[in-house]
């Protein structure tokens, strides 16, 4: 996905958020419903969060410089985290507002018209949110993914709100309006915490098991016989960009030109499997005599021991900072 495309999507999300916020406040002004007010207040969070996400997508697209040698992609994690915190705070405010209106109730009016307005926002929110999230997942953009999920969450919460307001309309029990607002607030708090927690993990380079397992699977299925060993595998996410470090063991007698060619081949295999930009640093180790026990190179002219074992590359052993034969000897 080009930077221009990402900006187009986030601007679409921002424009939709502003329009739907105005519709929801119009519905609250007509009805005086606490639940509809809660939904309208949550829309303010949508606008603020999407506004910051717009800036973060713009900044993450800027090229690396001397002060940011790995680029600006991590701003997207910060943006997603801010969105999570704003959702959480909105949930708390909604609960406080619902309790206040429970203590000091106000009459409800024009609920039917209000439900129609709010119902239209639900459909638009879900469609736009689903589209933005899927586009974000294609390129691993945390800002777009968080924003898309937020819009879909808003649509889901609006559905709950509509059911509740419908019950109030047909039953006449006004207290249901306040109860629904409290439930809605709790849902927002839980989801806001979840989004903020995932964002903090990205900022702290927490391992993304889905991506790591994908890299392990690529290395296993496309393994070359001269890739004697791969270890110290580390993966970091910089917004939509991926950074991969690893140690690759190759035959010690190869000349530098051949080693350089194989490293490029290794990098190309990983790069072509990911739609996003992938930066790969490969540290090359020369093989040792003990590597012969699991080396798959059939025509090795310097082999000292026959191949006696096969090492299955896994998520657990590829990340270790040691050659695999050392782990094999330890287990023996």
Automatic annotation (TrEMBL):
Keywords for the protein's UniProt record, in alphabetical order: Membrane, Transmembrane, Transmembrane helix, Transport
Protein name: Cation diffusion facilitator family transporter
Protein location: Membrane
Ranges annotated as spanning the membrane: 9-31, 43-61, 77-99, 111-132, 153-173, 179-196
Residues covered by the Cation efflux protein transmembrane domain: 10-204
UniProt keyword Nucleotide-binding, yes or no: no
Membrane topology: Multi-pass membrane protein
GO CC entries: plasma membrane
Domain (Cation efflux protein cytoplasmic) ranges: 225-287
GO MF annotations, alphabetized: cadmium ion transmembrane transporter activity; ferrous iron transmembrane transporter activity; zinc efflux antiporter activity
Biological source species: Siphonobacter aquaeclarae
GO biological process: one example: intracellular zinc ion homeostasis
Sequence similarity: Belongs to the cation diffusion facilitator (CDF) transporter (TC 2.A.4) family.
InterPro entries (alphabetical): Cation_efflux, Cation_efflux_CTD, Cation_efflux_CTD_sf, Cation_efflux_TM, Cation_efflux_TMD_sf, CDF_Transporter
